[in-house]
Design a protein that fits this description.
The structure holds 2 protein chains of 2 kinds. Chain A is α/β, with parallel strands linked by helices. Chain A is built from 6 helices and 7 strands, in the order αβαβββαβαβαβα. Chain A has one domain: Rossmann fold. By secondary structure, chain B is mainly alpha-helical. The chains are: A alpha/beta, B mainly alpha. The interface between A and B is small, with 12 and 7 residues.
């Protein structure tokens, strides 16, 4: 039964939930506290992906605030896009956005997604996410920390 | 200058020939359907009327032929007749589309006539004569497309196995006939009680193996998944829906009625044989990708269920539970009828898919629902029946079987306490996997998008083929919704089977199916009515609610981000069955190999992956080669005596005559 003792000894490791940040957009479905997102890697170096998985890990636990990553855009309220948009991923990004029912929200995570970052004007790059689709929320940083990502997501869910 | 000569098809010559073929097809199909109608009428008149018998002395030298009709033969004659009506109508269109030669057209009615005579036979010689006539006629029909190598191989397989089964039946019936010193079944039945246990056991084992091979039971089932796919579809239909029943008829007539009631291990042996066949058949069906092979294995499965029910009836009857035995017996008879209906329909629908596309491979079909709506609905009704779900033809009988197994009394009886729960498990597993197999056949074969050009250009079957299918579909609907219609007939048949609990009060087939002494009832008609009502209510509500809803928005289908869906993204029959194949790897033993080719520049980049899987029959692979080797060795030994010298043969004849004269002295 050592695992029970271990749980007791370890205690809470999750980051404390501070006060909810001010809402930056109206919740897409009109319901606060729930946001289902489909993640699209439009051409990322995978740095932002590591931080996103950190944001949804047990430590930062973004699901506490009503955000979930879903498998199908049909189930989603919006897109979580990372990386510069490469020519090959331009159309899939548009297709994914088209598959999400309106109203929907587009969240760009990382410098590359917001303004091209390190890869702006590079070979095979179509531009930033904002060059391809209309972006509602930007999370800057190369890569942004999980805490920044969680804060941005809370600003959308309103919790 | 190069000239290309194409083999000119004489347009003028085709006209009269086609007209002649149309005439022949109508004659053959009409005759088949008419024979079927006569059989149905005769069967029904025997079930409800008095037993009849007919002796034709001049037809066979020395013994003559003898036909006897009682309710048990009546029900099998009626089933064969009903199947033949449907197949006869269907074959009019099929024979024209597939350009049948004269031989199959001529043999089709003969085959039906032989099948109608088998249950009517009243003596050992007559039975063996018509049995062999049936086997020979079906063999000719299997070989109708004998120009294809696969058909010839299947034909040889079928010929050998059916003769092997016949040899066992012949031996058993000759032993039986000699021991009771009579040829007629009635006389044998009267003497059966005086036979020694050893004789009875020998006859039982030989007949169960022989009739089991006709019914497609393990281990002599291997002809079934070969011959059924290669035979023309109306023939597969007749063989799978009517001819296999003759094996069941043989088991009922010889083992349960004439020899019975037997010792308890008979019932147990039938249950084990049936249970193993059912589970094995359905497993093979669920991983099969050939539509007709799938249906053939489903026949093994259903015959297994019927045998299991018969075994349960025999075991329960000899364990002093006649009421529950009567339920099991009703389940067996009802399943014979239901299986005949849905399997006819499924094979006929598979046949119209085959004529429209030339394909049996489910991995290349698909998208037929738009192109062949009638055939799709028909196959759907057949598949629903085969999956044993409510409102399918096979549901009521499988429900009855499960009720009899669950409610069997086993106060202190270890055998029953062990056998019955295990059988419930086997039946449940069979039904569950059967649903998977049928969902695969219908979903992959008929829905979604076509996977090949042939499936894309499919056209609906002609009128006569559709009419033949509608006849079988009507029968399916009756079994599913209004089984009460069969109640009076089944009561008469049960009364004739007193050795396996038929004398006890059987289940009452009314609007409510009530079981004697068992707290369980079922009302298929009310079930159907309530389902229909709830569908109508749901439709009405959604219409009513739609007034306030915004207009629907059309969005492209989600193709995981890529631009267009392609048929290659769909589930195939192979991928649908892959999890099952993985789970039952030890039983199925599939032959799978994966070949990965890398680019020459880098071993980290894959150029192509080839996946090949072949599902062989494990029982056939393990059991048959040693037997075949032994038979070949024996044949080689016998060949030494056959060296072609006529002098030697004359000597054999002389010695043989001498021995006969000495013995007969």
């Amino acid at each position: 039964m050592s695992w029970i003792g271990r749980i007791r000894r370890t205690g809470r490791i999750v980051e404390p939930a501070n006060d909810a940040p001010e809402a930056c957009v109206t919740p897409p479905t009109g319901v606060t506290g729930s946001l289902q997102l489909r993640h699209v890697d439009a051409g990322s170096c995978n740095g932002c992906e590591v931080e996103i998985s950190g944001a949804f890990s047990a430590v930062y636990d973004a699901e506490r605030f009503g955000v979930r990553l879903v498998a199908s855009p049909r189930h989603a309220d919006g897109i979580l896009a990372t990386g510069v948009v490469t020519h090959n991923m331009r159309q899939p990004l548009l297709n994914t956005l088209g598959a999400i029912p309106e109203p929907r929200v587009v969240i760009a995570v990382g410098d590359c997604a917001c303004n091209g970052g390190l890869f702006a004007n590079g070979h095979g790059v179509a531009g930033s996410v904002a060059d391809v689709v209309a972006v509602d929320v930007e999370v800057l940083g190369c890569p942004p920390t999980p805490a920044q990502i969680v804060a941005a997501l809370r600003a959308v869910t309103g919790r | 200058m190069a000239l290309h000569f194409s083999p000119a098809v004489p347009e003028l010559g085709e006209g009269p020939r086609a007209a002649q073929r149309t005439r022949s097809a109508r004659l053959s199909g009409g005759l088949t359907a008419a024979l079927g109608a006569v059989g149905l009428a005769l069967g029904l008149s025997v079930i409800f009327g008095a037993p009849r018998h007919l002796q034709i002395a001049w037809l066979l030298p020395l013994v003559g032929t003898r036909f006897e009709l009682d309710p048990v033969s009546g029900v099998f004659i009626a089933v064969t007749g009903a199947v033949s009506i449907s197949v006869g109508i269907y074959s009019v269109g099929y024979a024209q589309r597939e350009r049948w030669a004269r031989v199959p057209m001529a043999v089709l009615p003969l085959f039906v006539a032989a099948m109608l005579l088998v249950p009517a036979a009243g003596s050992v010689t007559t039975f063996l004569l018509v049995w062999e006539l049936m086997a020979a006629a079906s063999l000719i029909l299997v070989l109708s497309e004998h120009r294809r190598e696969a058909v010839r191989s299947a034909g040889i397989f079928y010929a050998i196995m059916t003769q092997l089964g016949f040899a066992m039946i012949l031996l058993a019936l000759v032993v039986l006939s000699a021991a009771s010193n009579s040829d007629a079944f009635t006389a044998i039945a009267a003497h059966a009680g005086n036979l020694s246990p050893g004789t009875r056991a020998t006859v039982f084992l030989l007949t169960v193996l022989g009739f089991g091979s006709k019914a497609g039971l393990l281990p002599l089932h291997a002809w079934l998944p070969r011959a059924h796919p290669e035979a023309p579809s109306p023939v597969s239909s007749l063989m799978s829906a009517a001819m296999v029943n003759m094996g069941i008829y043989g088991i009922i007539r010889i083992d349960l009625q004439i020899l019975g009631p037997g010792p308890r291990w008979w019932g147990l042996a039938l249950m084990i044989l049936g249970g193993v066949s059912a589970v094995f058949g359905v497993l093979q069906a669920s991983v099969a990708t050939d539509l007709k092979r799938l249906l053939a294995y489903s026949t093994t499965e259903n015959m297994g269920l019927i045998t299991l029910a018969l075994g349960a009836a025999a075991l329960l009857s000899s364990s002093g539970a006649p009421k529950v035995a009567a339920i099991a017996l009703t389940a067996a008879l009802l399943h014979v009828l239901a299986h005949a209906a849905f399997k006819t329909l499924a094979f006929l629908a598979a046949g119209s898919v085959l004529t429209a596309t030339g394909l049996r491979d489910l991995d290349k079909l698909g998208g037929l629902a738009r192109r062949m709506p009638v055939t799709t609905v028909m196959f759907g009704i057949g598949a629903l029946g085969a999956s044993g779900l409510p409102l399918g033809a096979g549901f009521v009988s499988e429900w009855l079987l499960l009720q009899s197994l669950i409610h069997s009394p086993h106060d202190g009886n270890t055998l029953l306490a062990l056998a019955m729960p295990l059988s419930v498990g086997a039946v449940a597993l069979t039904t569950g996997l059967g649903i998977a197999a049928m969902v695969k056949a219908f979903g992959v074969g008929f829905l979604a998008r076509p996977r090949s050009g042939a499936a894309e250009n499919a056209r609906e079957a002609p009128l006569s083929m559709r009419a033949g299918m509608v006849v079988a579909a009507t029968a399916c609907a009756v079994f599913a919704i209004w089984p009460a219609l069969l109640g009076p007939a089944l009561r008469h048949v049960l009364a004739a089977l007193s050795t396996v609990g038929g004398h006890a009060a059987g289940p009452q087939l009314g609007t409510y199916l009530r079981l004697p002494g068992v707290a369980g009832s079922l009302a298929p008609a009310l079930l159907a009515a309530s389902l229909l009502a709830s569908v109508l209510v749901a439709l009405g509500l959604s219409r009513w609610g739609a007034r306030h809803r915004p207009a629907p928005v059309l969005a492209p289908l989600w193709a995981s981000g890529s631009d267009a869906l392609s048929p290659r993204m769909q589930y195939t029959a192979t991928s649908f069955a892959e999890p099952l194949q993985r789970v039952f790897d030890n039983v199925l033993r599939p032959d799978t190999d994966v070949e990965v080719t890398h680019f020459a520049e880098s071993q980290y980049l894959v150029e192509k992956v080839t996946y090949r899987t072949r599902q062989a029959d494990p029982v056939e692979q393990r059991l048959y080669p040693p037997v075949v080797r032994a038979v070949t060795a024996m044949a080689q030994a016998v060949r030494r005596a056959h060296n072609g010298s006529i002098h030697l043969y004359l000597t054999y004849g002389a010695i043989g005559l001498l021995i006969v004269l000495l013995v007969a002295q």
